[in-house]
Amino acid sequence: MIIFSVLRSSLEKSTSPSIPFPDTLKGVDDLIRISLEGFRNSCFNWLLAATFLVVAGLVFEGPELWHEISSIVRHWRFGRRFHFSLPEEQTPNRAKLLAFVGWTLIVLGVAGEFVADSFVSKADGFVQKFDEILLSDAQKKTGAASERAAMAFERAAQTEREASQENERAAKAEQQASEENARAAKALEAAEIARTNAEGLSLQIAQANERAANAEKRTAEAEVELARLKLPRSLTRVPELISALGPFKGTEYVFVSVFQDEESIYLLRAIDDVLQKAGWTRGKSVGGFPGINIYGSEPNNFSVPVGVNIGVQVSTDSPKDVDTSLKIEELPQYLQAAITLHVGLSSCLFPSSNNSTAKVVNVQKGTSTTIRIAVGRKP
Questions:
Q1: Where are the beta strands (DSSP E) in the chain?
Q2: Which of 47, 162, 192, 333 has a Cα-to-Cα distance from 287 of 20 to 30 A?
Q3: What is the pLDDT of residues 330-371, one digit of tens each?
Q4: Domain boundary at 139, 157, 175, which?
Q5: What pTM value is reported for the model?
């Protein structure tokens, strides 16, 4: 490129400014520019190839990510449904191998992008430098044209002097127009100030409306929570609950405690009525002082010790640790009954609350198959 610049400079010195360059020089310029642009396009194609390697590497890492995300979703769904956790699953070796290949492709692609980008930048520099040479040449030609134009300007000076009188009259008209423009600008400024004030007022109104809406929302939520606190707990969808507990007919249950208020006692009666209709067997009352006679002087009365629990809790025993990997159908029948009762109470208790029932059935070490129920105070 430097040799070409020197060659063109010598040709310009040996040629009169009034004589145009041959078309051959323009052809040489075009060939040089095409060559430089071809080099730049080639480097850019290598950059695209390196980017493709990075994309391919990300695709190869996809199976490993898919396996891990699927495992997390399965654990979450199983835990939410059965309140147990599954054992961790190992990622297949094939997925790990594909992930390693993907990582290798990403490394190669990033390195290729670095190298190709440096060559693209260098090629852009070559093209820019060549354009600067052509621009310098054009500026020299423009200088010669300016000299010729100076002569034309001198001839035009006479014409300008003749037109000066017309320009003076036009200046007066322009001054008048400027004064009109100034008055119009002041009017526009006043209008803009008024518009700004109106927008500020609109914003304040919108903010006040938003605060009022938020206050109404908080008031509604407080009213709903207050209503929930005032309403006594009760069981809904009782026929569905009885139907779900029916397959465990004959299961023995016992109430181990009840909170000492009327609301908790009535809820215990409702739970006892559902279990009796489902064919479950109430066991012998648990001893404890003080105790509450649930039905008073009625024939079906029984005593339950006073407790300080919160919500409804279901518990039972197991001689060994429960295998959390088993399905609910594979567990002993009394454990299935305890889980079914826990899930049924959680879904049928109204008003609902996060603390209305315990999160899971409390399984303790022991040999008893009796289902224990504790009715605590309302959360």
A1: 234-235, 252-258, 281-282, 291-293, 303-305, 312-318, 349-350, 362-365, 371-375
A2: 333
A3: 899 999 999 999 999 989 998 876 555 556 788 999 999 999
A4: 157
A5: 0.42
